[in-house]
Amino acid sequence: MTQLHISTQFDSGAIEVVSLEDPRNIQVNIRKDSAAGFAQWFHFSLQGAAGLAVNVKFLNAGASAYPKGWEGYRVVASHDRQHWFRVDTTFDGHVMTARVKPETQCIYFAYFEPYSWEQHLDLLASAAASPHVTQECLGHTLDGRDMGLLRITDAQSSISLAEKKKVWLIARQHPGETMAEWFVEGFLERLLDPDDAVSRVLLQRCVFHVVPNMNPDGAVRGNLRTNAAGANLNREWLEPSMEKSPEVFLVRQKMLATGVDLCLDAHGDEGLPYNFVVGSEGNPGYTPHVADLENTFKTTWMASCPDFQDEFNYGRTEAGKANPTLATNWVAQQFACLAFTIEMPFKDNAQLPDAATGWSGARSKKLGASVLQPLLAVL
Ligand SMILES: [Zn+2]
Asked: Which segments constitute the Peptidase M14 domain (predicted)?
């Protein structure tokens, strides 16, 4: 029998090997973020197990950041790193076990379909080929990566720049929530499609500012929730600093320069098997006008995309009880505008499940493309 081997030496690789003696009892531990206590993201390859009945046991699953995330969850796997499928997975409250018979000598496992830094650079490059796109580097992360921004508008439109609505889309503040960058990819593909009437009108009326990856260091390090300094970026919006959270500092600075009329912040949720949004109703500055915009946005999105729903979510935050350190709350309060956190599932959409893939990169892309319709409705 070929010797079994596990590797994490690649972009977003993360796992700790406990035992590789027996393919039916491979034991691993989920690793913590590189500078913080959150343990949830994993991504690794297993070599030497072709045709064998493999059980991978995640021994510390019950002690991870969100143990409820493993209830009803199935591990994602791939033989070719292009097509990802779900494997039979159980969770007994302590140990999570994934069962699979690898078809080839190397199989990859991940918490969710990965989105690598190379893919990120490909995404920026392909978007920059459009005449409507300007690519900008806002500054650098603690590990020295570019904070890339895409500015997108139809410069030929008769509407002046000052009159155009300033729309922001940011994603992956929590770097392990890779569905968020898949969402951005789908959004950009449709927005830059010259045959799409909705996109053409949006580009005439709006200037889009898109940050596809808010946390490049955390993404490459294989973190679930934090950057190189261990900061949870979605708790940094009130007082970001170049020492601890340059990603937020730089993007916030740009927002203050451009102004914001609408902001979407894309995330993934470990627990709930649904797509939903979280608004800013707990802000002191929340108004009936913003509530109307929220309703129009949600109603239009539900009508145009059955993968979006408004029944299952976190519930409403009491008036005045909003956490002002979250991007959505800070933006909505600062600019008196509509802002949503978009949550996609790590598991599946329970209302439209897919047994083979669960919620996936491709489905996140479709959802990202579909958000242009509610954008048109509110603008
Ligand atoms: Zn998140």
From this structure: 107-379
Secondary structure string (H, E, C) spanning 157-201: CCCCCCCCEEEEEEECCCCCCCHHHHHHHHHHHHHCCCCCHHHHH
Cβ atoms of 263 and 331 closer than 8 Å:
yes
Q: Which helix (H) or strand (E) holds 341?
A: strand 338-345
- Output the CA 267–ligand 1 centroid distance in Å: 4
For 131-141, write each residue's pLDDT tens digit: 999 999 999 99
| Domain tally, the chain | 2
Catalytic one of 113, 181, 185, 343: 343
- Are 11 and 143 in contact by the 8 Å Cβ rule? The answer is no
Q: Kindly report, residue by residue over 17-26, the tens digit of the pLDDT.
A: 999 999 999 9
185 classed as catalytic: no
**One-letter amino acid of 275:** N
Residues 122 and 106 in one domain: no
CATH of the domain at 232: 3.40.630.10
Distance from the alpha carbon of residue 1 to the mean position of ligand 1, in angstroms: 42
Q: How far is the CA of 158 from the centre of ligand 1 (A)?
A: 38
**Are 212 and 319 contained in the same domain?**
yes
* 39 and 67 Cβ atoms separated by less than 8 Å: no
pLDDT digits (tens, 9 = 90+) for 118-158: 999 999 999 999 999 999 999 999 999 999 999 999 999 99
What is the domain-level CATH number for residue 30?
A: 2.60.40.3120
Residues 340 and 231 in one domain: yes
Mind listing the pLDDT tens digit for each residue in 282-311?
Answer: 999 999 999 999 999 999 999 999 999 999
**How many beta carbons lie within 10 A of that of residue 79, not counting itself?**
16
Containing structural domain, residue 200:
117-378
Conformational region of residue 85, where left means phi above 0, alpha means psi within -120 to 50, and beta covers everything else: beta
pLDDT at position 207 is 98
Distance 370 CA to ligand 1 centre (A): 20
Q: Are residues 183 and 228 in the same domain?
A: yes
